[in-house]
Write a structure and sequence with these properties.
seven-stranded antiparallel sheet; two-stranded antiparallel sheet; 3 helices; binds flavin mononucleotide
Length: 167
């Protein structure tokens, strides 16, 4: 396989941008910007996320057996960059962002258009990112939407000419 062609072909896959959050109930709260996300079943509603195994987010999701995917809005590029770095909780805020606890305890960011909470039902342990399979158990629509829901979300291509995760 030609490595440049491999990279270019893999970078043709379009991605939304999400903040993955989890709270293990033992003082560990994590948040990380992710893009390797998709729905994989209607019944039950399943989602998968590719999560870096050496990240704090992976440890917390595993311990919590649950997570939330916070959907970033089109105009929330700066939030994406905030959560590329490990998150911290201070003054009741998550890396400076207001949040509330969801049904699973996972932080739901107040300023995002919506969030989906999932219970972890399986983890596929292959490669440097493991596939976390979650069943959607609670949906939060923080703001009313007009138009297609997938037009509301920040996408990888909105982050700039040189930003990719994949390849
Ligand atoms: C553009 C971009 C996309 C990313 N997508 C993912 C992803 O899909 N899965 C993942 O585990 N990490 C992804 N990351 C890395 C995480 O954002 C980063 O490891 C995390 O925020 C670090 O915090 P943590 O170690 O506390 O989890 C991405 C980073 C960038 C720059």
């Amino acid at each position: 396989m030609n490595p440049d062609q491999k990279k270019t072909v893999l970078r043709m896959i379009p991605y939304g941008i999400y903040v993955l959050t989890a709270d293990d109930g033992n003082g560990n709260i994590s948040a990380a910007t992710v893009n390797w996300v998709t729905q994989t079943a209607f019944a039950p509603p399943l989602l998968v996320v590719g999560v870096k195994t050496d990240s704090g987010a992976y440890q917390t999701v595993k311990a919590a057996h649950s997570f939330a995917l916070n959907m970033l809005g089109k105009d929330q590029k700066s939030l994406a960059f905030t959560f590329f770095r490990p998150a911290d909780v201070s003054d009741g805020k998550l890396s400076g962002q207001s949040f509330r606890k969801g049904t699973t305890g996972a932080p739901i960011l107040i300023d995002v258009p919506g969030a989906m909470e999932c219970r972890v039902i399986s983890i596929v342990e292959q490669g440097d990112h493991h596939i976390v399979v979650g069943e959607a158990i609670d949906a939060h629509l923080n703001k009313p939407l007009t138009g297609r829901p997938d037009s509301a979300i920040l996408e990888m291509k909105d982050l700039g000419e040189t930003v990719f995760y994949g390849g």
